[in-house]
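Troubleshooting: if your tokenizer reports a length mismatch, compare your output against this known-good record of 125 residues.
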Amino acid sequence: MQSNILKPRFLSVILSAWIGLFGFVPVHAGAVPGKNGSMILRMCKSADTVKMLAVMCNGYLDGYLDAAHHYGKGRAGFCLEGDDRKKAPGALVEWIEAHPQSLNQPAAEVLHQALTERFPCKGKK
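Known-good structure output:
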């Protein structure tokens, strides 16, 4: 009976020690690589064939769209209507491939430029 009580305690001590040693690695500003146009291209390019990449691409895009509309107070510079939301990943891939300089630009900047060009709001230039 006593050994059953010790096992969970022992495991929790080991787990706590492991998290303490390896779980809290300091991250410095600018140390998170990959949040650029090449990341978006990699996620969205195979979204039609790899379900996990589709989830990642659409999730990243949805988060950006929500933030752009919220912080832009409805003036995001682009408008996705009807089936545009389904077309957006492919449009992003086409735009990034046509603008190779965007591969090294920040992801939010690439998304803004591509969506503004590919999905302009009607009545705006």
